[in-house]
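Hi all, posting the design record for the shared folder.

TITLE: backbone redesign
STEP: 1 of 1
STRUCTURE INPUT:
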């Protein structure tokens, strides 16, 4: 469900928090959906349960999820809508990492744009209901 890169330089909890937020904002995680338990999420991603719990706490603080004691953590019925500036700030660390890696590999802006366009098409096809 989620992919974490321990070598990215971005803390695992930040990566996971960003991915959950992005999926909620994009509609990939529907309002009212049950999220994996802290235990299941930590086992699936091979992370400390405290890390998974921290992510859920931060998401709850920001209004993206709500925890129902003894039942689970759900996507909020009305998650906050981020303005464009906030969305750009949200994706900024991932873009910085991509650009740094592209420079390291000797790829130029056109190469990166072509790769991004290709990935957008691929992921949009996968996200479409069958």
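Okay, here is what came back for every position:
SEQUENCE:
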């Amino acid at each position: 469900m989620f992919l974490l890169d321990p070598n990215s330089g971005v803390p695992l909890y930040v990566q996971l928090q960003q991915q959950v937020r992005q999926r909620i904002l994009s509609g990939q995680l529907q309002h009212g959906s049950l999220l994996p338990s802290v235990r299941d999420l930590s086992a699936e991603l091979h992370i400390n349960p405290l890390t998974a719990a921290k992510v859920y706490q931060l998401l709850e603080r920001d209004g993206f999820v709500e925890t129902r004691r003894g039942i689970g953590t759900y996507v909020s019925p009305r998650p906050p809508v981020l303005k464009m500036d906030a969305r750009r700030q949200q994706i900024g660390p991932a873009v910085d990492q991509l650009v740094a890696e592209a420079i390291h590999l000797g790829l130029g802006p056109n190469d990166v744009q072509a790769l991004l366009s290709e990935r957008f098409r691929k992921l949009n096809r996968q996200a479409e209901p069958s």
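COMMENT: The beta strands are 65-68, 72-75.
Let me know if anyone wants the other runs.
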